[in-house]
Design brief:
Elements: H1 2-11, H2 20-32, H3 42-53, H4 64-69, H5 71-74
Helix pairs in contact: 2-3
Length: 80
């Protein structure tokens, strides 16, 4: 159990900028803010990334329904 906890702590402590989670989270935030029709707009994505995850990550390039899957947690601060 201890090894599993250590692995999870190391694995999931990576910055959001270096994972897909950051761009999915930002896309969901855009949908919550009424900007779902602009989730593929690169400059707007970068603005949301700076505001939400504190830097630039990969751009959102997933199907739109994936952003909808994250809406249930997008209202939380990223650290939660």
């Amino acid at each position: 159990m201890l090894l599993l906890a250590v692995f999870a702590g190391v694995r999931f402590s990576a910055p959001a900028q270096s994972t897909d989670f950051g761009n999915l989270f930002c896309a969901a935030r855009m949908v919550l803010d009424g900007r779902g029709n602009q989730i593929y707009h690169a400059e707007l994505q970068r603005q949301y990334q700076v505001r939400t995850i504190g830097g630039f990550g990969t751009l959102y390039a997933h199907p739109p329904f994936e952003a909808a899957l994250f809406i249930s947690i997008a209202w939380l601060p990223l650290k939660h």
